[in-house]
Amino acid sequence: NNNNNNNNVSLFLQLYSKIGYECGKYARMLKDNNILWGYFFDHNPTEPHCNAHPNNYIILPPASENDTEGRKNQLLSILDNDMSMTLEEFLNPYTGNHYPEEDAIEMFNEWKKSEENELRRALAGEIANNGLIGLDNGTKEPNVKWALRDTLIHYFELAYNKEDNPNPINDLGPLHTLIQLGLMQAHFAQS
After folding, report:
1. β-strands 85-86, 35-36: how paired?
2. CA–CA separation, 54 vs 129, rounded Å?
3. What is the tens place of the pLDDT at every residue in 140-178?
4. CB under 8 Å to 87, separation ≥6 — which residues?
């Protein structure tokens, strides 16, 4: 039935738009509060580690009746905040200077931009940067995947730029059902 196919596509578009918008809101909140999610030198002094990728988000369980209104419409939360830092805590690894020294502020801002762009690239499907390396089977991806990723990035940018969501989703029930089906499918595919 053609109507069911349209509803299925619509549900996927809603899911991707919701995820994109929430990712954009988190990225904007970090920017507005001068917080690096986690961009720092770890084991390799020439390649910074970056926490801003999709596997550092979790899908929250459905809200209960007692949850706040904001939580009832929230699908995602971020993880791996233990290496987050504010501008005031940042130490330039090259000079040892910290805020309010100009080189520390410049380095923080450069790393912040890098972190934001790494997240955009990962959300757009760059597998080398999405935290999910090893799941690519080398096949050419159908156009619908690119359309969904474009939707995700479009809604990310709307939220990041503090624009209203033109299609807010107030009932997360169908999205949670779709997510559960996806998780079951992934489980069976790996078994």
Report:
1. antiparallel
2. 9
3. 667 888 889 999 999 999 999 999 999 998 889 999 999
4. 34, 99, 105, 108
